[in-house]
Specification:
The protein is α+β, with helices and mostly antiparallel strands. It contains four helices and 31 strands. Belongs to the WD repeat coronin family.
């Protein structure tokens, strides 16, 4: 009888962690020494935000991603909370908007300017007031725009609709009251129709967030994990422990034993917290499939750690970069609140690629042979819909030039990389700077193509709305 060792073939079997060099770390950063269980850090392709200490209130730093090295001791802060900041999260659909929550029981939404901060930012865009005790967690909805979740020490999870002109919002659209102790973490499924929470009572709850009902309860949740990041596209699970220096990673499978240990990244420096770069901010040229930002309070240091798949070829590796969630919402706030679900809009990480799953169009209704002209009232309604969406269909009369000074902010931002206009940057002086500028320009081209595709889809949607309105007027 021969013995056959169990061997698993996996493209991620030899993934290794690569810490950044000293000059590519963020040094002399006054990281908070709070004992609250949280990440204390949030990252997107433009900025890294980290909670810091501040006399007389709470604050956090927003550092441009490229600004590595030693931080100026007088570097401006984002401050305005009356108590310590406990959590920060970037808007997944707007790299210049961030949410923060605090011991002062409020949540604040901040607009980060494109240029570098020259002084403290103290005026927030919106303030959410509803919790009666400190707020420990905030999470953005993964597919719906302007939907924010918060969890407080009043044992409540509140759902906020930010799609309003009010600067101070005092009424959440939903309050979930099924927890009996402090909520330690929140996480969504892919389309955001389900919410999972861990609680200090050592239970994991799966919740229907719109109904506020518990669908499943499991016992044995751990309170000490600060990050359990699963990547849906690569089926990898990373475990990062607070106070631990190591990062362990596993491969998730539908077959037993479902979780297979790969290896771990080892370090003697314990992490206070961790930030995770969205997939769209990775360096695909170096086969980077994940990137952490490790907070090391003992050294006042933020250390980027790249997870690398070793490949000899320098070309784009299609098999390790499956389509991933992009920076466009697939639902508006009211659509999700009314019960709709949609999967994320996917993008390819190949430089210069386009959207893979644009927002689906509504089903077209049967069209009669003769269509009566729409009434002025219906045209005004259609024009209002177009104005709310930032576009005017070609069938409507133009009242203002298409390229006026009131174009949407994201169109203006799409020309910016790391907060700077790519056409106003000084010429590169080294080969490395030239290569970085090339990749930045490729990223801008990709984003502009995504924006163009989204606008075309929106234009078709509005044309269908007008057609339906004309049909309705004929029936009346």
């Amino acid at each position: 009888m021969s013995w056959h060792p169990q061997y698993r073939s996996s493209k991620f079997r030899h993934v290794f962690g690569k810490p950044a060099s000293k000059e590519n770390c963020y040094d002399s950063v006054p990281i908070t020494r709070s004992v609250h269980d949280n990440h204390f850090c949030a990252v997107n392709p433009h900025f890294i935000a980290v909670v810091t200490e501040c006399a007389g209130g709470g604050a956090f730093l927003v550092i441009p991603l490229h600004q590595t090295g030693k931080l100026d001791p007088h570097y401006p802060k984002v401050c305005g909370h009356r108590g310590n900041v406990l959590d920060v999260k970037w808007n997944p659909f707007d790299d210049f908007e961030i949410a923060s929550c605090s011991e002062d029981a409020t949540i604040k939404i901040w607009s980060i300017p494109n240029q570098l901060l020259t002084r403290n930012l103290t005026t927030c865009k919106k303030e959410l007031v509803g919790h009666v005790r400190r707020v420990g967690l905030v999470e953005w909805h993964p597919t719906a725009a302007n939907i924010l979740f918060s969890a407080g020490y009043d044992y409540k999870v509140m759902i906020w609709n930010l799609d309003t002109k009010e600067s101070v919002i005092t009424s959440p659209v939903r309050t979930i009251t099924c927890h009996q102790d402090v909520i330690l973490s929140m996480s969504f499924n892919t389309n955001g129709s389900l919410l999972a929470t861990t609680c200090k009572d050592r239970k994991i709850r799966v919740i229907d967030p719109r109904a506020g009902t518990i669908l499943q309860v499991s016992a044995g949740a751990m309170a000490g994990i600060i990050s359990g990041s699963t990547t849906e596209d690569t089926s990898m699970l990373y475990l990062v422990g607070k106070g631990d220096g190591n990062i362990r990673y596993y491969e998730v499978s539908t077959n037993k034993p479902h979780l297979s240990y790969l290896t771990e990244y080892r370090s003697y420096n314990p992490q206070k917290g961790i930030g995770v770069m969205p997939k769209r901010g990775l360096d695909v040229s170096s086969c980077e499939i994940f990137r952490f930002y490790k907070l090391i309070t003992t050294k006042s240091l933020i250390e980027p750690i790249s997870m690398i798949v070793p490949r000899r070829s320098e070309s784009y590796q299609e098999d390790i970069y499956p389509p991933t969630a992009g920076a466009q919402p697939s639902l508006m706030a009211q659509e999700w609140l009314s019960g709709m679900n949609r999967e994320p809009i996917l993008v390819s990480l190949r430089p210069g690629s386009e959207l893979l799953s644009p927002r689906p169009l509504p089903e077209e209704r049967p069209v009669f042979n003769s269509v009566a002209p729409a009434s002025p009232l219906l045209l005004n309604q259609a024009e209002k819909l177009a104005a709310e969406d930032g576009w005017r269909p070609s069938s409507l009369p133009e009242k203002t030039p298409r390229w006026s000074g009131e174009h949407r902010p994201e169109e203006k931002r799409s020309w910016l990389t790391n907060g700077f206009d790519v056409f106003e940057c000084p010429p590169p002086k080294t080969e490395n700077e030239l290569l970085q500028m090339y990749y930045r320009q490729q990223e801008e081209i990709r984003r502009l193509r995504e924006l163009l595709t989204q606008r075309e889809v929106q234009a078709k949607q509005l044309e269908l709305e007008i057609k339906n309105l004309r049909m309705a007027s004929e029936q009346l």
